[in-house]
Amino acid sequence: MADPKGFLTTPRRLPPRRPVDERVRDWDEVPAPGGLLPIINAQAGRCMDCGIPFCHEGCPLGNLIPEWNDLVSRDDWLRASERLHATNNFPEFTGRLCPAPCESACVLAINQPAVTIKNVEVAIADRAWESAHVTPKPPDRLSGRTVAVIGSGPAGLAAAQQLTRAGHTVAVYERDDRAGGLLRYGIPEFKMEKRHLDRRLEQMRAEGTKFRTGVDVGTDMDAAELRARYDAVVIAVGARAWRELPVPGRELAGIHQAMEYLPMANRVLEGDYARPPITAEGKHVVIVGGGDTGADCLGTVLRQGAASVTQLDIHPRPGDERAEGEPWPTYPKIYRMSAAHEEARELAAAPEADVDARVFSATTVRFEGTAPDAERPHGGVRALRLVGPGADGGPGPGTERVLPADLVLLALGFRGPERDGGLIDQLGLELDERGTVARDASFATSAEGVFVAGDAGRGQSLIVWAIAEGRSAAAAVDRYLAGSTTLPAPVGPTDLPMTA
């Protein structure tokens, strides 16, 4: 513990963000370049090195947070990187994308602002890359066993890297034209620039992992035939079956799922389009859904130059502090403002702007449209009608409101893996009552030699859970192939996050 009084003498401090009027004109990451390093040693020194570090329980990866906090506070970046990578394959991803349940579980957070664990993590990861501390780690010997990983999101990549390093020959199959899954096409560039993903993929290739992109297993290739070619298979296809909004007018043109819209914006930056086929430019936009995906849509809409944007959340506005029923160290439902919401709020203050960042307790009852024509046989959306809550919890009389809408984006979450591709049926996989792939205590499915990791088995969750599951599934596969394993297994398939 470098400074025993650091948590008493040093206030919590976050790195500066780039000015809103600058960052909404480009797709670069929001934090100001170089803003972390001048403050991060002192912030790491706020860690209490408490006897029972609950931050370990808040993070499913079991990150050794007090250890690398102490090393950063002492300016020992190499050892900090070693301790960080001991439990996390991709800390540059989680340090940017995870909502940091570890900070909610920080002991200091009982009565003070938590340690900025997430910022320390990303600072270590970025410094490790800049200092060439991150190098390929190919296996010393090959096992002679082969594994196919279907899906290249965080769970699939974590499983593939662990199994490759254990000596197995691993091929990752990805239906998109580039590897990365939602890290590639679902996460906007302003949250994580894709160079971070690309360099990690290059590390994996140098270690021996093979990538087969543009192959939709179950459609382009029979899944049963793939299983016959490999000694084991890991399914990590995520939970891509999106939730619908079955209200009158849903058939109108101009209403799209978030995961139809977001990938197109990312593909522009990849050079696939000069202009996205679905764009918010000059349009009145309504985003239905108040979660992280909705916030990603909000930031993207603002950068595309929408005429107006409103984000609807069916839930009431959370409080600013923990509710009595959500005690420390659980992850509380409190009011949070993402960088995109900050951008919307500031832009709304401009005299010429028409931006309403969020409307809470809003239920969409129907869409209204224009008359059908040759291009839009069902007509195009022109408005969304919503209602607020009444005293009995149902729609409130007199709360109806109409919002103009040329573009509606549905960000309502996901139900489980998609069923229309043939993968599940061709392998004969059983599903559980939630519609996710059923598995036992060792991540094994009902098909011999087939395992499942990440959202495909857990349901929609956080990136840290996906990576943790990928690591645990890799340990299960290694044990299946070799009879024993030394790979870590940080979580079990039935483990749950700390929530009230």
UniProtKB/TrEMBL annotation:
It comes from the Bacteria. It holds the Pfam family Pyr_redox_2. One of its GO terms (biological process) is glutamate biosynthetic process. GO terms for molecular function: iron-sulfur cluster binding; metal ion binding; oxidoreductase activity, acting on the CH-NH2 group of donors, NAD or NADP as acceptor. The keyword Protease does not apply. SUPFAM superfamilies: alpha-helical ferredoxin, Nucleotide-binding domain. Pathway: Amino-acid biosynthesis. This is Oxidoreductase. It comes from Streptomyces violaceusniger.
